[in-house]
Amino acid sequence: MNEPYREEVEDFYMSDLKKPPGEKVSAWPCTGRSGSSSGVSFSCPHVFLCLSLLCQAGSLLGHPQCLDYGPPFQPPFHLEFCTAYENFGCCDQEKDNSIAAKYWEIMDYIDPQGHKLCGRYIKDILCQECSPYAAHLYDAENPQTPLRNLPGLCSDYCSEFHFNCYSAISLLTGDKHMQECCETNKTRFCNLLNLHDKDYCFPNVLRNTDLNRNLGSVVEDRKGCLQLCLTEVANGLRNPVLMAHANDQTHRMFVAEQVGIIWVYLPDGSRLEEPFLDIKTIVLATPWVGDERGFLGLAFHPKYKYNGKFYIYYSYMDKKRVEKIRISEMKVSTSDINKADPHSERNLLELEEPAANHNGGQLLFGVDGYMYIFTGDGGKAGDPFGKFGNAQNKSALLGKVLRIDVDGKSTTGRPYRIPPDNPFMSEAKARPEVYAYGVRNMWRCAVDRGDPVTRKGRGRLFCGDVGQNRFEEIDIIVKGGNYGWRAKEGFECYDTKLCHNSSLDDILPIFAYGREVGKSVTGGYVYRGCESPNLNGLYIFGDFMNGRLMALQEDEKTNKWKQQDICIGNTKACAFPGMISSYSKFIISFAEDEAGKLYFMSTSYPSAYAPHGSLYKFVDPARRAPPGKCKLKPVPVKTKSKRIPFAPRAKTILELLNEPPTTQPPGKSSSTGVTRTSSSKKAKTTPPSKIKASTLKPASAGKKTPKNKAKVKNKPKRKVKVTKVSKTTPAPSSTKRNPRVTRMKKL
């Protein structure tokens, strides 16, 4: 790269590098937004990324969350006892049966009159563990605080329960303090169960329209921004350009740095000390901010589990100091499955790069088993090569989507075969490798796995194509398609003369956006994972330069795509253990793991040698899959290298919320009016079968029991048996806690 050009590139990037390395995105403005693929109008005046704790002023409000600190879910089977929550909540059939068994165990100690008066109350109270707001009802939104013994009850409901059923308190909780002070003192009892926010106490929480509207759907703020959360998965990476998996049931993640190193991350989150591949002495990469050259692509053979083959795409300089792109095949070591054989490289294809930018870099295998290669147009600005540019020249391999068969050699001496149905095989001047053309610099493409049930969408190729100076676009790649560059940019003409003379069957983007929204698209993935059912079918992508995250949803009737912003780190929606409130600004790449979970990589300083890159995983706080549905059983991996445990650097939202205030007004208690027991000394509930008869009497044992009040019998009657109820029944109060490379824009 010559010096004047280098200075221009650095000026472009440095205009967006106002923050020191390591500083994260919090909240930022923008001047536009497109909500439809039908055009490129931008009407929205602001970006709606709630990344700052200031987005939610005041105390932490309740949000749907279960007692195991996860989001609620749709039970896979019918609930026979806590039927109010059979469509959405925190109980599966096993938990429902357990609660039912507990209910009948308690009712065995209550006389017939008590059954009529108290049965409904006791069932309601026990079933609050199934409520989608269970964590709030039990003060369990923060793992650092002890659970309530009983859920928060609204004042009137609590008073009614106490008046009729105070004798049952000792059966519902083993908290000695509550038993001794509250059986005869309604005011103290209801004060203990009081919730600061009256909307969330039971039964008000069931009647609150705002809390139950769209419950279980992806949360949107008032401006339509999707509320998602993040967890930090890895950090300290030098421009992480990609993450891939080998589809070998080991669930390892291979993360590549721009300098030419691939790291192995294991399912437990640890990283192996020794890299899978280190070719930094071959790869052409520099510390210059925004330099696009380096290690750019990695794809594992569909049969990697059996043949150990994988493919790489990187920049290098030959002996004559000519810059080139090389695509090679390599194999895994025969002595260590976590290391590549450094001597196994087989060169498949080399392309001379006329400029230092627009290097492409994506490799992937389609559902047809062929390898797709995405090349840039050769660089500079406006694709100035030849009469129509490289992208429109089918005799050139730059500015193309190529498709080859790596499982053989051609009769012409190529180290690969040409698929027989490639679209330009019969065109004399066209290269047979070309599958689609007219692309500028597609940065990050992905294959849609298809709907998990219907398989709809399976095999579609989504790509983000970086624009020149007006529009960024998202494309779906089809065989023989012309994507318009340099005649078009987005939906509009770029080269007016060429545009007016171009064919009418150019493939238009499914979505394009202008500079009011972002400057450099980073293509993403269609979510098809198991953990977050709400996200199924959403295409999630971002903008490299300003850190904006976006999603596209297809309207199946019109085949149009609707765009929405994604908000990260909202302190109300994301107040779960491990969730973070910010991320590094420059979004380099997206990825999915073997199970379909979705990630992205970003850095706070886009230099190939700067260790400021991180890997983040998306989480939907509104709904998860039922417990056990997504349970993974990774094939064990023998490791010879030392495992380095993951050490998070980003503070979680709960850590930030729990930081003590700098000052506290004198005399003001931090208590919310609820007496809590120490987490280490929390009283355990004694099973009713072991409660002495005397403990079942009201505290005012010498007084006459008011008429129509429930009486607790001193002698247990015969147990009532319930079908489909588990034999082991936990006490009600013993609820447990399950504790790019950087792409420079052409100037």
CATH class of the largest domain: Mainly Beta
Low-confidence stretches: 1-10, 26-61, 667-707, 715-747
Radius of gyration: 30 Å
- Give the overall shape: elongated
Q: CATH superfamily name of the largest domain?
A: TolB, C-terminal domain
The CATH architecture of the largest domain comes to 6 Propeller
Helix content: 10-25%
Number of domains: 2
Rounded mean pLDDT score = 84
> Major sheet: size, sense and barrel closure?
9 strands, mixed
CATH domain fold name of the largest domain = Neuraminidase
Query: Helix count?
Result: 13
Secondary-structure map:
Layout: H1 3-14, H2 93-107, H3 112-126, H4 134-137, H5 155-165, H6 169-172, H7 176-182, H8 186-192, H9 204-207, H10 209-212, E1 226-237, E2 240-244, E3 253-257, E4 261-265, E5 271-272, E6 277-278, E7 295-300, H11 304-307, E8 309-317, E9 323-331, E10 346-352, E11 362-365, E12 371-374, E13 400-404, E14 434-437, E15 442-447, E16 461-465, E17 471-477, E18 488-489, E19 492-493, H12 496-501, E20 511-514, E21 521-526, E22 539-543, E23 549-554, E24 561-568, E25 579-580, E26 586-592, E27 598-603, E28 613-619, E29 643-644, H13 653-658
Parallel strand pairs: 1-24
Antiparallel strand pairs: 1-25, 1-28, 2-3, 3-4, 4-6, 5-29, 7-8, 8-9, 9-10, 11-12, 12-13, 13-14, 15-16, 16-17, 17-20, 18-19, 21-22, 22-23, 23-24, 26-27, 27-28
Domain Folate receptor-like: 78-226
Domain Glucose/Sorbosone dehydrogenase: 237-566
Protein name: HIPL2 protein
Structural commentary:
- By secondary structure, this protein is an alpha+beta fold.
- The protein folds into two domains: 83-213, no CATH class; 226-657, Neuraminidase (6 Propeller).
- Helices cover 13% and strands 21% of the residues.
- Strands 1, 21, 22, 23, 24, 25, 26, 27 and 28 form a nine-stranded mixed sheet that branches. Strands 2-3-4-6 form a four-stranded antiparallel sheet, with no helix packed on it.
- The two termini are 15 Å apart.
- It is found in: Secreted.
- Residues 656-747 are annotated as: Disordered.
- Residues 704-724, 737-747 have a biased composition (Basic residues).
